[in-house]
Design brief:
alpha+beta; 4 domains; single chain; six-stranded antiparallel beta barrel; globular; Thrombin, subunit H; disordered N terminus; 487 residues; Pdz3 Domain
């Protein structure tokens, strides 16, 4: 006798009935999931949900700016500014081309309300946008989706990362949630919201095309998210969000040959923007980390020369004397392969990681030196302090239209002269007295009025004491000559 013959009859028949009822309950959703029209309908509803969630926090930014010009259509080297021209034709002739003029212009962009998770300003809401949107702004007006308009002021800005924080003085504004851009994956859906061409609160959708884009020349510090969501002029500063409505980036730039959308847009990762915004609000400035090295990417040819098998890592081309890197024992020719226990792949990402490390932090740097792996401990310096030290030997001679720099040992070796033997011209204003005398960038100045020049400060003092005429001994390409300058 079979096992089934021992079951009660009603229980035996109840089993298939229960299975059939269960299948009937789950079959309709399965069929719906296989319906392409229904699938598209659900995707559309997801985008609509994001739009409802994000729109109240996105603002349209209008900017009025004033820029002063020299009034000349010919630029700084205008012939109307020449003394000989004024003597010949009279001072009044061409005056309209010499007097400074104010040029008013208007611009537009996007932004969004955010709030900090910590710190003194965590109970307030601010607007995050691009620096280039509000650069040189005299008046800023922001407009919300419900029509409310407010005047805004720049609370803090960082040109190097192209980020600015605005304040409108109104509390309880709807703030967007900031996501984690490090978790983004290539191919993931993202939505861009902004005001392209002044068309308020426009939504476009696309995917993450790539991550970690650097060396694009858009800003000093780059780690862009690339997306094919349509971004056009006016989108700058608006949020790039995921399907959960979390901000993952700030729309910043496009690659275009026509000036319009061509499928390649770039956004600043929100993790970078959040760190910059926190520093701007907490400290009023951005303090960046500094090592004091010149680095370059590892090419296949260089990898072969350094006897390494892959292209992971970056080469130390130069170590500045007395820098944090020098104190840590980093040497020219080292291959940096790790930073804080994470691999180093390229110069752009490494530079960003160092810059975002707070000055004074202790870090571990892994290097390959002649085939051996070394772990070195370094104390991150302050980039601002380093910049001040680097510029301490630079001064301007405005009467001549040039900037000169003291010859450091490195510069002296480059120009094949002794340190303290003259100064080097680092910049020349077009059309200036010095430019018309044939002095250009890289020219060495050895003497002023037959007095030997030893540094930039002394050079400036000698020029200031020259009245309106100076005799210079200059040199370039192993040739020296005397030059008389009058002003």
């Amino acid at each position: 006798m079979s096992f089934l013959s021992h079951l009660p009859l009603k229980r035996f028949f109840a089993v298939p009935l229960l299975v059939a009822a269960t299948l009937m309950m789950i079959a309709p959703p399965a069929l719906a999931a296989d319906d392409p029209v229904e699938s598209l309908r659900q995707t559309g509803k997801a985008f609509a949900s994001v739009a409802r969630q994000v729109s109240p926090s996105v603002v349209y930014i209008e900017v009025e700016s004033v820029r002063r010009s020299d009034g000349s259509p010919f630029g700084p080297g205008s012939p109307f500014n020449d003394e000989l021209f004024k003597r010949f034709f009279g001072d009044s002739f061409g005056r309209q081309f010499r007097e400074p003029r104010e040029q008013r212009s208007t611009g537009q962009g996007s932004g969004f309300v955010f709030s900090l998770d910590r710190g003194f300003f965590s109970d307030k809401a601010y607007i995050l946008t691009n620096y280039h949107v509000v650069q040189d702004a005299e008046r800023i007006k922001v407009t919300f989706n419900d029509g409310r308009e407010f005047d805004a002021t720049v609370k803090g800005s960082d040109p190097k990362s192209d980020i600015a924080v605005l304040e409108i003085g109104v509390a309880d504004m709807p703030a967007l949630k900031l996501g984690d851009s490090s978790k983004l994956e290539v191919g993931e859906w993202v939505v861009a919201m902004g005001n392209p061409f002044g068309l308020s609160h426009t939504l476009t959708a696309g995917v993450v095309s790539a991550k970690g884009r650097t060396s694009l020349g858009i800003s000093d510090y780059e780690d862009f998210i690339q997306t094919d969501a349509a971004i056009n002029p006016g989108n700058s500063g608006g949020p790039l969000v995921n399907l959960d409505g979390e901000v993952v980036g700030i729309n910043t730039a496009i690659f275009s040959r026509s000036g319009g959308y061509m499928g390649v847009g770039f956004a600043i990762p929100i993790n970078m923007a959040r760190g910059i915004a926190e520093q701007l609000l907490d400290n009023g400035e951005v303090k960046r980390g500094f090592l004091g090295i010149t680095i370059q990417d590892l090419t296949p040819q260089l990898a072969e020369s350094f006897d390494v098998d892959d292209l992971n890592g970056i080469i130390v081309a130069q170590v500045n004397p007395g820098s944090p890197a020098a104190k840590a024992g980093i040497e020219q020719g080292d291959l940096i392969v790790g930073y804080q226990e994470s691999p180093v792949k390229d110069t752009g990402s490494f530079r960003n990681r160092v810059s975002m490390t707070p000055p004074g932090s202790k870090v571990r740097i892994d290097v390959l030196r002649k085939g051996k792996r070394l772990s070195l401990d370094a104390t991150i310096g302050n980039l601002q302090d380093a910049a001040q030290v680097a510029s301490a030997g630079v001064t301007e001679a405005n009467d001549l239209g040039i900037s000169v720099q003291t010859l450091t040992p490195e510069l002296a070796e480059q120009f094949d002269v002794r340190a303290g033997q003259g100064v080097v011209v680092s910049a020349v204003e077009p059309g200036s007295i010095a430019a018309r005398a044939g002095i250009d960038q890289g020219t060495l100045i050895f003497e002023v009025n037959r007095t030997r020049v030893t540094d930039a400060v002394q050079f400036k003092r000698l020029i200031d004491n020259s009245g309106q005429r100076a005799l210079l001994l200059v040199g370039k390409n192993q040739r020296t000559r005397f030059v008389v300058l009058q002003w």
